[in-house]
Amino acid sequence: MSGxxxxxxxxITGSTSGIGRATAELFAREGACVVVNGRRRDLGEQVVxxxxxxxxxxxxxxxxxxxxxxxxxLIDHAVATYGRLDVLMNNAYHATHGTAVExxxxxWDADMAVLLKAAYLGCKYAIPEMIKGGGGSIINISSVxxxxxxxxxxxxxxxxxxxxxxxxxxxxxFGHQGIRVNAICPGWIIVNASREWVAxxxxxxxxxxxxxxxxxxxxxxxxxxxxxxxxSDESSFITGHALMxxxxxxxxxxxxxxxxxxxxxREANGDHRD
Length: 274
Ligand SMILES: NC(=O)c1ccc[n+]([C@@H]2O[C@H](COP(=O)([O-])OP(=O)(O)OC[C@H]3O[C@@H](n4cnc5c(N)ncnc54)[C@H](OP(=O)(O)O)[C@@H]3O)[C@@H](O)[C@H]2O)c1
Hints:
binds NADP nicotinamide-adenine-dinucleotide phosphate
């Protein structure tokens, strides 16, 4: 049986861990040749070894996507190794917590370089290669924070919102040349990097069970499955879309959300009345 990405070549930035890694593994299981990226070489090689042991095809390529020349080299590597490029997932993450007053200018620039500028450069370098092959799919990993503002995270909120409209802009500009561009907006996804924090804050899981309409936080595979659909030809009539993969977090009215948060707070204090 052939996979849903058979014959396609995919680059996933920031795939040494978390959502990127789960997506690389799923894409490879579905027949794609995957270029795994990130700065931790040991983890990148581990992801590739796992994919190959599973019968898939992948290579690891070191690139700091905040550096234009390295991002260019990543795209070139994919084309040189596999002869084409069909899918780019702009996923790498680097962000500093802080308000507009607290964040230093160099932190703003470093965060924007990875969260937003890398996605623009990814499009700039990947699209001409995709057009040569007849088209392609770009997936920008935004966030629920791209749609609604949280607290003390000014670079993240700004970049993730920018990514959603950049998605629409690039989709409009290149749709006629066979390029589709979509964003995914995940809610809270428990990745390895957050496990230590979660272990120290078990109440956060219970809180998520209460405030997420589906009754749980997300896992990397939840986002990977959405990315698989957007990468595959099954979504060929979908472009410029921002897909919420958030267990319903953002579909709620604020007053109904405040009701469930109050219930959670009462429950945390041993009061189980609804
Ligand atoms: N987890 C969530 O709750 C959540 C929710 C909404 C959206 N998201 C989004 O999902 C995406 C993935 O996040 P995640 O939760 O899976 O985080 P993660 O596990 O920390 O993964 C981040 C990835 O980015 C890579 N990376 C960081 N800086 C890089 C750079 N300069 N160049 C290349 N790669 C770089 C890291 O690899 P190296 O360290 O090896 O470089 C790592 O593979 C992000 O865009 C994030 O904003 C996550």
